[in-house]
Write a structure and sequence with these properties.
The protein has about 575 residues and is of the alpha+beta class. The protein contains 14 helices and 28 strands. The strands form 7 sheets. Strands 6, 7, 8, 9, 10, 11, 20 and 23 form an 8-stranded antiparallel β-sheet that branches. Strands 15-13-14-16-19 form a 5-stranded mixed β-sheet, with helices on one face. Strands 25-24-26-27-28 form a 5-stranded mixed β-sheet, with helices on both faces. Strand 4 (about 95) and strand 5 form a beta hairpin. The structure holds adenosine-5'-triphosphate (ATP) and magnesium ion. The site of adenosine-5'-triphosphate has 16 residues, from strand 7, strand 20, strand 23 and helix 11.
């Protein structure tokens, strides 16, 4: 490909609102352009990377015998009513009406569509197991689209769905997909860790996320040093090593703590450790129930764990106004003693071993001291509802947890029969008995993954693309277009190398500085510079990680290229 014909609008500086390095580089290199918030055009350079990623995915799906299909983007809302997800999915769904007023939507994910079109067509156990996939644009009206392709409102996903007659078949399908995904990431040069994850609105309980460590990542992963335990912080468990000093129950007393709202302020004011305070947080669950949540003062509520424990569709902390209206006390003054306004009291396990602790008195500016479980109030349910802390022992090998920021590049679920039961997709088993189809779903954020790859392969001046995903494997940069020896050699190398590799040939009449700066943004694994020594059949080669270019005789070039690119 001749660069003079290649549309690659590069920028000296990235726009000021670009924060993520991958976003900056893709804008500067002319890979992508934003059309509206979270919606991007893929320009030739970006599209080449995208197509290469898709090709790798196609090959890996082929290897596990999963055929490709294409489902519509435009879907009837009724499909989502059948699964019960129309309301649950919330404002992230792009909803629209057709001219007849029929409620419709743009697909954010396709479990319903595949259940309708595939699962409902499976009549006998003999047709299973089967799996299908597509690579397709998804639409999600994200609250905060940002970081370029990392969180878009229109983005590309590989989504695969599996259909099994038995749990064993599902397990095998899940393992196959997991292996295929790992192969895809490896071939794309991406370092990922599989971690325990939250299934969210997807249904099912068993899910694994693929997380790519990167500074810009929006997720936090808790891992021990040997990697025997890895979980998204949303789900991470840890062992609480704190042991409260046991005391005889003392008499309950009410104390004034004017103006002390936070746990830290209270601890200081009362001259006690934070671990002697029990924190009370009022949650509004499913917009109807008032659930009081208790934790030891040094811990934070993990809302994902709380959602699971309560099996809630939605929950949120009460607003300041709601707090006063419901409990009669302002923030800091709320507590579990005589809290008859609470529909339920839930406590984290860290509250279990405590005695003579401090809680809000349900009166603004007052606390109760020497409060004791069971004597002064009852807890309806205990559970692990706290955020794990870095350094705490992991639940498997009891090694200290380390936190890393990370990008979720894929998520695989054992869905079970959630969709097939609600939507009525059954088959006849060996005994002629109707059973719900057992499903799995598997997704890779293709465009997000492109950004993640860039985040993991930044150089001082640009990108060092892994070879299988690089937009071009070889970049020939000719220094002087008017030099005939250079042109002759450049064209000869272009022709020769193009037989086996994707070659970009910079044939533009530009200054060397411009050409090199652009080449850093193209990030080809090999740059061949054709300059003064062209007549002597000597060129320079440089890999993005090399500090400087090295001279090489043209005769030796083939060996070098084969060694680098295979
Ligand atoms: P997140 O927690 O980041 O919002 P999610 O849990 O909503 O992700 P899934 O529904 O599991 O994501 O979607 C499958 C994959 O699609 C994700 O692992 C991610 O790689 C990708 N993805 C999800 N949302 C976006 C988005 N807004 N932009 C780009 N890729 C996305
Ligand atoms: Mg999301």
């Amino acid at each position: 490909m001749r660069q003079s014909k290649f549309f690659m609008p590069t920028l000296k500086e990235a726009p000021a609102d670009a924060v993520a390095e991958s976003h900056k580089l893709m804008l500067r290199g002319g890979y992508i352009r934003q059309v509206t918030a979270g919606v991007y055009a893929y320009l030739p350079l970006g599209y080449r990377v995208l197509r290469k990623a898709e090709k790798i995915m196609e090959e890996e799906m082929e290897k596990i015998d999963v055929p490709e299909v294409s489902m519509p983007h435009f879907l009837p809302a009724s499909l989502w009513e059948d699964s019960g997800r129309l309301q649950k999915y919330g404002p992230e769904m792009f909803r629209l009406k057709d001219r007849h007023g029929r409620e419709s939507l743009l697909g954010p994910t396709h479990e319903e569509t595949f259940t309708e079109i595939v699962a409902k067509n499976l009549k006998s156990y003999k047709q299973m197991p089967i799996a299908l996939y597509q690579i397709q644009t998804k639409f999600r009206d994200e609250n905060r689209p940002r970081f370029g392709l990392l969180r878009g409102r229109e983005f590309i996903m590989l989504d695969a769905y599996s259909f099994a007659a038995t749990k064993e078949q599902l397990d095998k399908q899940f393992d196959d997909e997991k292996q295929a995904f790992e192969n895809i990431y490896r071939r794309c040069g991406l370092v990922v860790n599989p971690v325990i994850a939250d299934s969210g609105t997807m249904g099912g309980k068993n899910s694994t996320e693929f997380q790519a460590p990167a500074a810009i990542g929006e997720d936090t992963i808790a891992t021990n040093e040997t990697g025997t335990y890895s979980a998204n912080l949303e789900m991470a468990e840890s062992i609480d090593t704190f042991k409260a000093k046991a005391e005889e129950p003392k008499e309950l007393v009410k104390v004034a703590t004017p103006g002390q709202k936070t746990i830290a302020e209270l601890a200081k004011f009362l001259e006690i450790p934070e671990t002697r305070i029990v924190k009370s947080v009022l949650y509004i669950v499913n917009e109807t129930e008032h659930v009081l949540v208790l934790l030891r003062g040094d811990k934070q509520v993990n809302e994902v764990k709380l959602t699971h424990l309560l099996d809630a569709d939605s929950l949120r902390p009460a607003t300041d106004d709601e707090l006063v209206a419901i409990t009669g006390a302002e923030k800091g003054g709320v507590g579990p003693v005589k809290a008859n306004w609470a529909d339920k009291i839930i406590a984290d396990n860290t509250v279990k071993g405590l005695d003579n602790f401090v809680v809000g008195a349900n009166e603004t500016g007052y606390q109760l001291k020497n409060v004791n479980l069971n004597r002064d109030f009852q807890v309806d349910q205990f559970g692990d509802i706290r955020v794990a802390n870095e350094g705490e022992p992991d639940p498997v090998d009891h090694l200290p947890l380390k936190f890393t920021t990370s990008i979720e590049v894929g998520h695989i679920f054992k869905l079970g029969t959630y969709y097939t039961k609600t939507m009525g997709a059954s088959f006849l088993d060996e005994n002629g008995k109707a059973q719900p189809v057992i499903m799995g779903s598997y997704g890779i954020g293709v465009t997000r993954m492109m950004s993640a790859i860039v985040e993991q392969h930044l150089t001082k001046f640009g990108i060092a693309w892994p070879k299988e995903i690089a937009p071009f494997a070889i970049h020939i940069v000719q220094m002087k277009m008017k030099d005939e020896a250079q042109t002759k050699l450049a064209q000869q190398l272009e022709q020769q190398l193009s037989k086996n590799y994707d070659v970009l040939y910079d044939d533009r009449n530009e200054r060397a500085g411009v050409k090199f700066a652009d080449a850093d943004l193209v990030g080809a694994p090999i740059r061949i510079t054709i300059g003064k020594k062209a007549a002597d059949r000597v060129v320079e080669v440089k890999r993005p990680s090399d500090a400087k270019a090295n001279e090489i005789a043209v005769d030796q070039l083939n060996d070098f290229v084969t060694k680098e690119l295979g």
